[in-house]
Specification:
Chain A is mainly alpha-helical. The first copy, chain A, is built from nine helices and no strands. Chain A binds a DNA duplex through helix 1 and helix 3.
DNA sequence: CAAAAAATTGATTCATTAGTCAATAATCAA
DNA sequence: TTGATTATTGACTAATGAATCAATTTTTTG
């Protein structure tokens, strides 16, 4: 029989509420009271379980990174060739899981948060490194020495598309973004070295 | 004889201080008192001239956009062909003027600010539109119907590179960024339509 | 110089919010 | 049931920071 899990259920609800609020407002400039309210608990409880607002936000970020990682891994599992794997990574970036409304906003906020939170910077760095080496290792057999450069460009392009997606004014759909990124990939694979 | 300009000098100092602080901390989560302090005036004066903190930040953003616009125009003036013009735009994006330490951080913050400030969103939209149409019109004679797509991709790539530059962890230099963006451009120009 | 206008201050007000804590409610174990 | 453990609350504290404003200094002008 499973031991008391209410604690974990609550923590999860609070994390989800935090993600929802970051997504809704587009920043980490939200109150613990509001997060608690959305989660349906008191602010005291949120503090009780997480200790501080920063810890709540870091937990939210960790959750988003986990979702992202799971999604990518799932896509990679079915891909056989390096080319398929690269496509799978790109598709995952703009897939539904990573694309719940507001997730793009959350990413943007995390980049800002990374400027003053060591832990956020650390987490973001891990994400960077993973994506980068994932892309690079699959690009190596296809473009050789250009792998590093193409990997940086592709990762940057994905980040840039995320920004544009988070911005209401730039009417871009996730599908458009996927196509653009895939287009860049194909173009890079067929380009001859200068 | 020029009329009293102290007012304008002060306003300018306050705007510069705001940019410096946004750059230093990497967010718009700064105090009016701190901005005033950096500018060497009292917080009261900052409020007196700008009315609110939001107005100070909006003015700071407007200033950055102006600097950017001037830089681009300067680059364009010397370019003759569409290709040269495209290169000039890219180079301007990562040029020294736009690259005072912290400006990248400021951009990032403005994207977040645009989520809740109508005025910031409006300004960002103008910037978007200008860059986009600038790129597109020069791409048109070179890549025809692909102009729209390549313009979006290039603009996104530039934004993404900005993010990476603002992030300490990703050791990328402005020169690297310029090279990557120029590389993408050349590649796009030489690619044959699928 | 004297009066008017402009520049500037900083103490004060008011609102917000992170974090604490002591008390209460619910659940579980024996 | 009863005692212990766990979950939960919401009032409270303390800090912060935006905005105001009356008072003061500086500058301009006639």
């Amino acid at each position: 029989m499973p031991r008391t899990k209410i604690k974990d259920i609550r923590k999860n609800e609070i994390i989800e509420a935090a993600i929802a609020e970051i997504g809704r407002t587009g920043s980490t400039d939200i109150t613990v009271a509001k997060i608690a309210d959305v989660a349906g608990v008191s602010s005291g409880l949120a503090h009780h379980y997480f200790g501080s607002k920063e810890q709540i936000l870091i937990s939210a970020m960790r959750r988003i990174l986990t979702i992202f990682g799971t999604d990518v891994r799932k896509g990679l599992a079915q891909a056989k060739t390096p080319e398929q794997r690269l496509e799978a990574i790109i598709i995952s970036c703009f897939s539904s899981q990573n694309f719940r409304p507001g997730i793009t906003n959350a990413w943007l906020s995390f980049y800002v948060q990374a400027q003053y939170s060591k832990e956020t910077e650390r987490l973001l760095h891990i994400y960077y490194h993973r994506l980068q080496s994932n892309l690079k290792s699959n690009l190596k057999p296809l473009v050789g020495t250009r792998a590093e450069e193409v990997a940086v460009a592709l990762a940057s392009l994905i980040d840039g598309l995320y920004i544009r997606l988070s911005f209401k004014g730039g009417n871009l759909s996730p599908d458009d973004a996927t196509e653009i990124a895939l287009g860049y990939l194909r173009q890079s694979l067929s380009a001859t070295s200068a």
